[in-house]
Amino acid sequence: MNLLEVTDLRSGYDGIPVVAGLSLKVHERESVGILGHNGMGKTTLLRTLIGLLPATSGEIRFQGASIGHDPPHRRARAGIGYVPQGRGIFPGLTVRDNLRFAAVAVGRSGNLASILGEFPRLAALLDRPGGALSGGEQQLLAIARALIQEPKIVLLDEPTEGIQPSIIEDIIDLLKSLRRRRGLTILLVEQNIDFIKALSDRVLLIQKGTIVREFATNGISDAAAMGDFGDVAG
């Protein structure tokens, strides 16, 4: 079953097209990676899917319903979680208040104990301001903040950016575990080849705002790891 279906989507900034006729499908409980160079439309795509950026044309369907005109809070309530590039936490709020704010926004204020059971590292940091956390801890908080809303799909934008390798491995293990326990669907934008290979069932290649190729994760060649996305299927 297609949980998310995007057809001929177009969006951009100040009249400049960035996402240019993009189509994709994400099945329920699937993890799909999107790979591409900077400036190819990866972040713009996710911002359009969550509703932070309006689509100029095309269709977005979630669980069979058209959501292309819904505001971001309605898409979140429908079950779309979003972890933006750069984390996007509230640096002046404590970890506890960051989590509570996200939960209350979708009417799930009683989920704090449950999410801390899945993110035990955050339990000792509850009274610490988000801005005082390390980069890896901020990323964990950003993911926890999305998941406390109990989404059916989570959109992850460059989650390894600025994170040390040991924390990246922790995030991989965490997302794999959450996917098994929750039946979580993931749409992942990333340039870290090892990360995208570890988490994705298949990978889509984006160029100039559209999907130009799809391949199995184990088909990513050494050329892709070196940044040559023009020939990624081995």
Fill in the keyword field for this structure.
234 residues; alpha/beta; Rossmann fold; six-stranded mixed β-sheet; 9 helices; 27% strand; globular
Task: Explain this structure.
The chain is of the alpha/beta class and 234 residues long. The radius of gyration is 17 Å and the shape is globular. The chain starts with a strand and ends in a 9-residue tail after the last helix. 34% of the residues lie in helices and 27% in strands. The protein has helices at residues 42-50, 72-78, 95-105, 112-118, 120-123, 135-147, 165-182, 193-199, 222-225, and strands at residues 2-13, 16-27, 31-35, 57-62, 65-66, 80-83, 153-157, 185-189, 202-207, 210-216. Helix 3 runs parallel beside helix 6.
Layout of SSEs?
Layout: E1 2-13, E2 16-27, E3 31-35, H1 42-50, E4 57-62, E5 65-66, H2 72-78, E6 80-83, H3 95-105, H4 112-118, H5 120-123, H6 135-147, E7 153-157, H7 165-182, E8 185-189, H8 193-199, E9 202-207, E10 210-216, H9 222-225
Parallel strand pairs: 3-8, 3-9, 6-7, 7-8
Antiparallel strand pairs: 1-2, 1-4, 4-5, 9-10
Helix pairs in contact: 3-6
